[in-house]
Every structure is written in structure tokens, then in C-alpha cells.
């Protein structure tokens, strides 16, 4: 595989958090807008099962990963203890406040539970997992919403969710200022969600990171551009276009899975890389951090082999795949309430 020179820095598209891409990929860092250094390449833990998570994380750490991404809700609350048991002192820890804990007191409670599970006094990055509220049912439909109103799904009325979201952020600011987290950010935010937070008169601490689903089919240019304006690092999840039911979804859109797309395959052949590595490298060259996940020891290591550089034509071919708006969304595409905006 072609490797860049240890001192060669690839050109990225980001104006936001600067990426230092010198050295091997697992040494790459992003400098957040509060000065904290965060690994560019990390290991995701979403959808790992309880019985396989420990070994997968062990393989990732052995391969050299130094960032673990988890959340309060992952694996029904069982993932944080697994991460806490497996982590080492030099690992950058990310966790997320769950949407069922919106509000100041509830967010504080959620974070304290996470710290206890992870067996730490401080996490490196705390994210607000979802902008939308907690709700009581998993079965949702536009028809039922039209007939009964969206309140039937909520634990709290929707009329105050925007205010409650700010209470959540206030609690996260308090935790940051108290030293319980090294940085704070948001996840699954639209440009409107993020803009409202940034324009809040009571804002004391600007988000340092936005973690969203991002890949060539779903590029979310509006929120990415807003992040660049405010020096907010974009961290991409589902960089490979998703797995499991992804093939059926892309077939419905008359598109091949990204891992099978000719643009990814051609670049992979040219660089002696895997299609997965090409998609991850595309994200890095756009200026994003990435958190690939795998259960397989070989793929866990292969996802770190990102030392090649995609040329302008290869980047353009992948850039051209954007379906526009949220059409390319794979994750939670049938769960619109998670991302809907409310007054």
C-alpha cells in the first residue's frame, strides 16, 4: 500500500478544527476549538453485542486505536461498563447523554451514571446524543402523527423541547466547567438545531464536536459548513454507508452499497487499499474524524491503513455521489422524531 511521507500533510477541506495528518494514521490528531487534542481515527462501539464487545475493543486497542466512542444507551446500558473495563489511561473516551435524560437535572444524572459505569472521574468528550425528546413508543408512523398528534410519543410535551434542549446544554456546560469532561459537543444535529444553540444568548461554551452520519451518499453540507464557520470538528459515523439492512435500502434508491460502488472500488484498486479504507480516507480528506466499527480483527486493523492520498479526481467521484438533503440517510431513517425540529 502506498504510504505518505511521515512529514507530508494531505490537503483537507476543513476550515474548522485543524487536522494534523503527519505520521501513521492512528497518531493523527485534531485540535478542538478549546485546545484539546483528539485522535482523528477512533473505534466505534454502537451495535456491538455484549458477548463480543470486549474482544473487539481489545483487538482495537492492540491495533493502536486510542479513541473509544460509546454512549449511555449502547447495548442497553451495558457498553459503558465494558469500555470502562477495557480502556487504558491513554484512551480518549467519548460518551453521549441519552435523549430520555433531557433537562438539567436529568442530564447531570445521566453523566454521573456514565462516569460510574466507565470507572472514571472525567470523560474526554461528552455529546448530546439527539436533539429530539424522549418518547414512550418505538412504533411510529406519519399516519398516527397526523391523526393523534406527536404528543402521543413523548414523555414530555413537544412545545418545550427547544427550551429543554438548552437546559441539557447548560448542564453539559456546567459539567465541562467543573472538569467532568474535557470537551462538549452534539450529535445528530441539523444546521437549524446547531444554529439555534450557537445563537443562544445564554451560551457559555461553544460545541467542540458535531458527530453525525456522514458518507458520500449523505454529505449534509449545510451543517458541515456551519461547523467550519465556528471551528467545530465534524466526526463522521456510518462512514461506510451502514451495514445490516443497508443493501436493501440502497437498492430501493437504485444505488449500490458504498462498499461496492465503482468509485470506491476504483480508488481501492489504485491505492492497494480496501473500499472501506477509501471511504474513511475520503472523510479524513474532507476534514472529518472517523469512528469505524468492526467485530473482525483483520478489518479492525485494515480500517487504520489510511496512509494513502486520494487525488482530486477520486475525491470528486465520491463527492458526486451525494443524494442531496437527507435522502442518503441510512441510520434511523424511519425514526423521524429523533431529528424533527420543534418550537
Automatic annotation (TrEMBL):
The keyword Oxidoreductase is assigned to this record: yes
CDD domains found in the cross-reference section: AKR_AKR1-5-like (cd19071)
InterPro entries per record: AKR (IPR020471), Aldo/ket_reductase_CS (IPR018170), NAD(P)_OxRdtase_dom_sf (IPR036812), NADP_OxRdtase_dom (IPR023210)
Residue numbers binding substrate: 129
Positions of the NADP-dependent oxidoreductase domain: 42-322
Gene Ontology molecular function, alphabetical: oxidoreductase activity, acting on the CH-OH group of donors, NAD or NADP as acceptor
Active site residues per record: 74
Chain positions of site Lowers pKa of active site Tyr: 96
Keywords carried by this UniProt record: NADP, Oxidoreductase
Family to which this protein belongs: Belongs to the aldo/keto reductase family.
Name by which UniProt lists this protein: NADP-dependent oxidoreductase domain-containing protein
Organism encoding this protein: Aureococcus anophagefferens
